[in-house]
Amino acid sequence: MRKIVAAAALSSALVFSGTVHAQGDPGKVAISISCGSVGIEFQVCRTGVEAWAKATGHRVQLVSTPNDSNERLALYQQLLAAKSGDIDVFQIDVVWPGILANHLIDLREHIDPKMLDQHFEAIVRNDIVDDRLVAMPWFTDAGLFYYRKDLLEKYGRPLPTTWQEMTETARIIQEGERAAGNDRMWGFVFQGRAFEGLTVNALEWLDSFNAGTIVDEDGEITVNNPRAADALTLAASWVNDIAPQGVINYSEEEGRGVFQSGNAVFMRNWPYAWPLLNAEDSPVRGKVAVGQLPKGGPDGKHTATLGGWQLAVSKYSQHPEVAADLVRYLTSLEEQKRRAVVGGFNPTIDALYKDEEVLAANPFFGDLYEVFVNAVARPSRVTGVRYNQVSAEFWNAVHATLSGQTDAKTSLADLERTLDRVSRGGRW
User: Fold this and answer.
1) What is the DSSP letter of 378?
2) Crossing angle, helix 196-208 and helix 69-81, to 10 degrees?
3) Residue from 368, 378, 320, 370 nearest 94 by CA
4) Strand pairing partners for 31?
5) What CATH class does 144-303+379-422 carry?
6) How many Cβ atoms are within 10 Å of 110's Cβ, its own excluded?
7) CATH superfamily of this structure's domain 2-141+307-370
8) Is the dihedral of CA 418, 422, 427, 428 positive or negative?
9) Do you know which InterPro entries this protein is assigned to (predicted)?
């Protein structure tokens, strides 16, 4: 009885966008799919779903879910724990397969192995849990360094290759533009809110300083080290200097809003921002370029955190075969190409990085190919079902440092002790 009540309450909280297509054929069924809504994501998802519905005659409902990945995961977990069939196809983060696997069907029974072979092997491997293919790669992501090429030229500054150089250049241009009349100009914006996006940003800072990945592949907690403290100390120095105080409450869209309005020199964000920054009504259209994120000093390295989203089918779907067919269509080469061209979504299919139309729409896909295929993974595989707690403890420690509540060394020492308890003495 409790599960029924819980499912009913969750159903009332979901936002359904309506049926996108209906043929009226009694032999056809209704499928629901959750789609993200960062930038034009929801619109691009709708178009793909409409094409599948028109071709098959099935009906589809799109479900709008929270942009905040933590809130979205919490919603998914509640729905699946209640064995709710309200969502048939889930859009899941690259770090969630291990967390949600028990509630998802094995897609090996529905996906041609030849189709699976087209996708990046590392991402497919990420989506296999206990020898079950619990999700299909839909689009991948890696952090990118957006910059105002016109302002670098104006001030005679080269593209920074280290975070230290970025800090200096950002300050010089910020001060120059403010003196010229734009008192809203900032040097750098990023995702500083206490959420998964901060884990992503901070992992890039750590890895660029050769400071590890919080927990290594053997399960050892490595986050409390001098290089990590240096990375976070530098990041904290940006707040109220080259970044606004409000950056500690920014997610992706807040940062893009500042940058796209012409009020930031540099921005860390995902590839989705590219077509929006270059839209006809964008104030920075034609003024922006993209490069690798800076290194953590001359001995550091360029790095980017692996992101991306997968599609999975709920065990509690009343029509799993039809839902799997929708997943097969949306993750196909043809649909991934369309999404790359119109929305800037990075394909998970290698061949599309050599496609002329894809490269014409996203020139940096070719130049930054190695960034996308070699992005650093968050420690979700080794920490398993505890990853979400590990990430939350990490982003809270980083946020405390950015907001000036404590210094980096203290935050990392406290974090190490907390993670040791979470891991039950190093046993994940």
Assistant:
1) P
2) 120
3) 378
4) 60
5) alpha beta
6) 17
7) Periplasmic binding protein-like II (3.40.190.10)
8) negative
9) Bact_solute-bd_prot1 (IPR050490), SBP (IPR006059)
What is the C-alpha separation between 272 and 252, in angstroms, rounded?
A: 10
Residue in 344, 201, 186, 197 with CA at minimum distance from that of residue 261: 186
Q: Judge whether 226 and 218 are in contact, CB under 8 Å.
A: no
Report the 10 Å Cβ neighbour count for 363. Answer: 13
The owner of tokens 């030849």 is: 114
To the question of pTM greater than 0.85 for the whole model, the response is yes
Contacts of residue 232, defined as CB under 8 A and 6 or more positions apart, other chains included, come to: 202, 205, 206, 398, 401, 402, 408, 411, 412
Question: What is the rounded distance in angstroms from the CA atom of residue 39 to the CA atom of residue 49?
Answer: 18
What gap in Å lies between CA 78 and CA 84, rounded to an integer? Answer: 9
Contacts of 184 (CB under 8 A, 6+ apart): 263
Task: State which amino acid sits at residue 276.
Answer: L
Domain ranges in the chain are 2-141+307-370, 144-303+379-422
User: Which pLDDT tens digits describe the chain residue by residue (428 residues)?
Assistant: 444 344 444 444 465 555 555 444 667 999 999 998 888 899 999 999 999 999 999 999 999 888 888 899 999 999 999 999 999 999 999 999 999 999 999 999 999 999 999 999 989 999 999 999 999 999 999 999 999 999 999 999 999 999 999 999 999 999 999 999 999 999 999 999 999 999 999 999 999 999 999 999 899 999 999 999 999 999 999 999 999 999 999 999 999 999 999 999 999 999 999 999 999 999 999 999 999 999 999 999 999 999 999 999 999 999 999 999 999 999 999 999 999 999 999 999 999 999 999 999 999 999 999 999 889 999 998 998 899 999 999 999 999 999 999 999 999 999 999 999 999 866 78
